Amino acid sequence: MSQAVSEQLFSEVFITDQLEHRRIERADFLKEKIALQDLASRMVTDPDAVLPRFVELAMQMTGGTSAGLSIFDQNASEFKWLHLCGELAAFEGASTPRNYSPCGVTLDVLVPVLCRHPEWAYSWVADAQIALPEVLLVPLLIGGKEAIGTLWIASGVDEHFTSEHARVASELATFVGIAMHVKRGEERIRQALEAQETLTREMNHRVKNLFALTEGMLRQTLRASDSKEEMAEALSGRLRALSSAYSLVLRDNLAEEGDLDLRTLTEAILSPHVHGASDQVFIVGDRLICAERAATSIALILNELATNAVKYGALGSDGGAVSITWRILDGNLELDWVESNGPLVTEPIRVGFGNKLVETTIVRQYRGSLQYQWLSSGLSVAITIPKSTILA
Q1: For the CA atoms of the chain, what is the radius of gyration?
Q2: What EC numbers are recorded for this enzyme (predicted)?
């Protein structure tokens, strides 16, 4: 709802300047002190009761007949009536427009506002058949800065509110705003501690998994190696791939950017194996996010293919190149590893642990398929993995 109130009607309804000219009663500072102590106590024992009690105290200490909070919802650009007490309590949960209400005027100026008979200027008040001789409104700010709404107090008679009432209501609102600021800070600290605890548990879980994976890899490499030198070389490459994958996953998690992009992972794993020109490796593929478990497995697969390409294939010869491309087709990730301009390759007589690792990971672990072709131009590997397993 977006309507305008004429200047003449606005000046008739908003009479804040009259507050200074009305006779005031002597301030009861003891009563104010007791009220603030009440609110402070509830902050410790029952924080959820602070706002309802704040509204009650404001109504009692200013002699109003009804009171409530209008909390601003930025997304809807409207106020929500909450914690109402007194004669208007039945309107709990009602909403009013930001740019067509006394509460909106109050947030515009961020000082106490006095209005009389708002039903004269605002049709939604008249439509609700509410007669309000006077309403005192005070902005509610968290920490004295962030305006979240208004406290409003209604009177059943004309010329009721004074500057003293405005001062008392403002003091209460200021105290509650500070209390809410403290509570928000405590909540942020609690969330930060919970996040740190979650990260610690997650890292413990990762370390355990890493040790288990390393132990299995060590045993398999030992059985498949003919010499300690061969074992050291193979194990070093596999651990390096694991390290790269875990470093990338941890970096993205700490940056809260989600899981790992396949291209970033591929570049990181291939980089240590490229010793020649920068055009030895071509990587082409759409952006695809890999979950942590999948990133670790793909890192090991790519490392095995790259290691073999350095030892026997295109990456071990001048002018040799590897093309790595992928696409999503029919719910599957289709990845092609194609070597070119390398030495003549033939199908190995004995299947080593590295090839077994690749096959086990793709076929058994991810329910995919793997196809090798030993062409005159170089090795070609076609890998198909269900996309759902990459994201899980």
Answers
A1: 35
A2: 2.7.13.3
